[in-house]
Amino acid sequence: MADTTISQHGQWSSRFVFILAATGSAVGLGNIWKFPYIVGENGGGAFVIVYLFCVIGIGIPIMMAETMLGRRGRHSPINTMEILTSEAKADPNWHYLGWMGVIAGFLILSYYSVIAGWALAYTGKAFFGSFFGESASGIATLYDNFIASPWQQIFWHTVFMTATMAIVVRGVESGLEKSARFFVPILFVLLILLVGYAMTKESYYFQGLHFLFNFDFSKLSGDSVLVAMGQAFFSLGLGMGAIMMYGAYLPKDISIAKTSMIIAGADTLVALLAGIAIFPLVFANGLTPADGPGLIFKTLPIAFGNMFGGWLVGILFFVLLFFAALTSAVSLIEPAVAWLVEAHKFDRYKACVWSGLLTWGLGVGVALSFNLWSGLKLFGHNLFGLVDYLTSNLMLPIGGFCIAVFAGWIMQQQHSESELAVSSPQFYQLWKFSVCYIAPSAVFLVFLHVVGVI
């Protein structure tokens, strides 16, 4: 029943724990490299302002909606949408929204685990001094040799998936909650330590701040606004079932609105701190900022290998990447595990084994797409590119759009009011207006942009 007060899987012990867990889910590899880079390329501080407006106007309302649906249903996203669709007497096809979220999380984790494995491998390389005194060509060769090795790829992917499932198998209180209490604070501590080190670079520190926060409105275009919309949506981890699943574990007396605002703020703070930590190191070593894996695995190791204290800073940085990836990974697989427990009466151990093995198997294919299977293309993409395109460009925007529409137009108002329980009628109406009109329109524009229509 939709009014069940506690999920059969358990619930968070406090609002603070939910905030930690949901923040860990939202904070991932993209916060560490993508957000700082696109800020610098799209007007610096001007882009940050647009991004913050998008977080407030799009991200927070959809996060509230997804959390609310989860808490109302108290089951895995698949069963939650079946319950809520029946409750609203809506078209039964709406339950496919739950399926899409679970499948998206499964697909994302399959390649996320491979990239997180790179971070683990590079932690070891930093520890054993592999970057010391290396030139740019030497670091590039190190990266190319690593990517070309299928066995190294599969080994580190396996290590990361094993760590993820070791947490998930322990359940909500002993697994997800304890990991959030431990890893998320450490993530912030590591970031602050890296920012503190960046501050010792003096003029380069201020050059990094200028790169991130300079208000250059001449670089701000219509395309920049769409990029900000997309980043606000994807950065919060919406549309992949994780927030809905975590919402199912949220006690009734905890405010969805307040926690959503705190989580969005913490997620943005991590992204900004990452930029503040990274770019002074880049500039201090005469390097050029680059996007994606190039910045993390090709550019920064040059800096770590040629700077005072680079041994320790390099280790801290790649450990930070690992923790960021791990806190996201446990939330991506949890919806599938919960569904197997509910629908097929698996115990949690068996559900973890099956979901983990399936994810690992697809991840092996992703790892091989960088080397042995690099020549295999489908629609112009290798397996990694195809999975990334399907999830980021299609499934997540469609999922976010449908969450907003269902919460705003399909769900009965008395139920959304009951779940949100906001003290101000004006705030509820503002949220309702956003999920009915603003958020769906904005996400639809982002969808058109990422598929190349606009």
What pattern of helices and strands is seen along the backbone?
HHHHHHHHHHHHHHHHHH
Q: What ranges have pLDDT less than 50 throughout 5 or more consecutive residues?
A: none
Mean pLDDT: 91
In the CATH scheme, the class would be Mainly Alpha
Q: Give the helix level as a range of percent.
A: over 70%
What does this molecule look like?
The protein is mainly alpha-helical and 454 residues long. It has one domain (15-450): Hydantoin permease, CATH 1.10.4160. The chain is 77% helix and 0% strand. Helix 3 (45-73) packs antiparallel against helix 12 and helix 8 runs antiparallel to helix 14 (310-344). The model has no long low-confidence stretch (mean pLDDT 91).
Question: What distinguishing features does this structure have?
Answer:
454 residues, mainly alpha, Hydantoin permease, 77% helix, globular
List the helices and strands and how they pair.
Layout: H1 15-26, H2 29-41, H3 45-73, H4 77-87, H5 96-127, H6 136-148, H7 150-168, H8 171-199, H9 203-213, H10 222-235, H11 242-248, H12 256-284, H13 292-305, H14 310-344, H15 348-368, H16 383-410, H17 413-420, H18 425-450
Helix pairs in contact: 1-8, 1-12, 1-14, 2-12, 3-4, 3-10, 3-11, 3-12, 3-16, 3-17, 3-18, 4-5, 5-7, 5-13, 5-14, 5-15, 5-16, 6-13, 7-14, 7-15, 8-12, 8-14, 9-12, 10-18, 11-14, 12-13, 13-14, 14-15, 16-18
